[in-house]
Amino acid sequence: MDFLEVVSTQRAIRRFVTEPVSDDVVRQVLDAAVRAPSGGNRQPWRFIVVRDSDLKRRLGRLYGECGDELIRSAPFYTRALQDPAADPAAARMMKSSRYLVEHFEEVPVFIVACMLSDGQPLSFTQAASIYPAVQNIALAARNLGLGTTITTIHRYRHNEIRDLLGVPRDAAEIAAMIPMGYPAGKFGAGPRKPATEVSFLNRWGTPL
Ligand SMILES: Cc1cc2nc3c(=O)[nH]c(=O)nc-3n(C[C@H](O)[C@H](O)[C@H](O)COP(=O)(O)O)c2cc1C
User: What is the distance between the alpha carbons of residues 76 and 91, in angstroms, rounded to a whole number?
Assistant: First the structure.
């Protein structure tokens, strides 16, 4: 696909058809992930490919608790659910997020992006070093006709989810859980502010 078309039509996909995702496709996506840059080229990532149904069910239970916690604790998301007319785009996003919470175990495959931590709090650069790889996953998947969503609400049950996946608490963090499959809906451009609205020339506030 044309690069700009990949970039501009890659968006959060949370509903998937049941068509399986082959190991070969997963491998191609992971090959794209490891081409990403990282601070000091430390490549501090590990990826867990989750296909096992029982594991997905157990993760789904914890992920559901995370979704409930998000609604309880984050006013933006609570409002999006309670007053959809106030911000229809946020309400649509929230409805789609809830769909994933409720259908977690039906997702064909998850890629869980982990980063090495030495058990110490991560510096800004360390923490930032995983997301280029995560975005490469999303873009490579889109190029192959697969939908993904970067998700991070697992952090509400981080330790329990780490334990379930055998991620050593003293050596790694889970940065994102990425559901992946062939989309039930369509790709397309998500709502975004134009670059001119969010860019400055030389100094903050000077229009470009
Ligand atoms: C750092 C990050 C964390 C995110 N966490 C979640 C999440 O936990 N659950 C979820 O359903 N979507 C999550 N998303 C997806 C966003 O909601 C989505 O990218 C955004 O609403 C834009 O969607 P669109 O591309 O379809 O317009 C996350 C995205 C990013 C970049």
Answer: 10
Percentage of residues in the chain having pLDDT higher than 90:
90
Q: Measured from the CA of 13, which atom of ligand 1 is nearest? A: 26
Of 81, 129, 150, 178, the residue with max ligand 1 atoms within 8 A of its CB, to mutate for a pocket test, comes to 150
56 neighbors 48 (Cβ within 8 angstroms):
no
Other C-beta atoms within 10 Å of 27: how many? 11
3-state secondary structure of 15: coil
Q: Which domains does the chain have, with CATH numbers?
A: 3-197 (3.40.109.10)
For 149-173, write each residue's pLDDT tens digit.
999 999 999 999 999 999 999 999 9
Q: Residue 109 — φ and ψ, nearest 5°?
A: -155, 145
Q: What is the pTM of this model?
A: 0.96
